[in-house]
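In response to reviewer comment 3 from the previous cycle, which asked for concrete evidence that the modeling workflow produces usable outputs, we include below a single protein chain processed end to end. The sequence was submitted unchanged, and the resulting structure tokens are shown without manual editing.
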Amino acid sequence: MGSLPVISGREARRAFERAGWRFDRQSGSHMILEKPGMTGLLSVPDHRELRTGLLRGLIRDAGMTVDEFLELLRR
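The workflow returned the following structure tokens.
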């Protein structure tokens, strides 16, 4: 398993969008993403830096592995 870099919320959003998630709306400082076929939503903070624990939780909630996310991040 790779280690997570420090990235912004917008960079994380772009990686999740490459995985099929789509931007639904913004509520305050949080970007809400949804994916057809998934019951839950992702709430990604629009911050300059996301803590690695928060990012790891978002990745888990999206049903992905860290390595899958890192691959999408590199595209």
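DSSP finds three helices and three strands in the chain. We consider this sufficient to address the reviewer's concern, and the full set will be provided in the supplementary archive.
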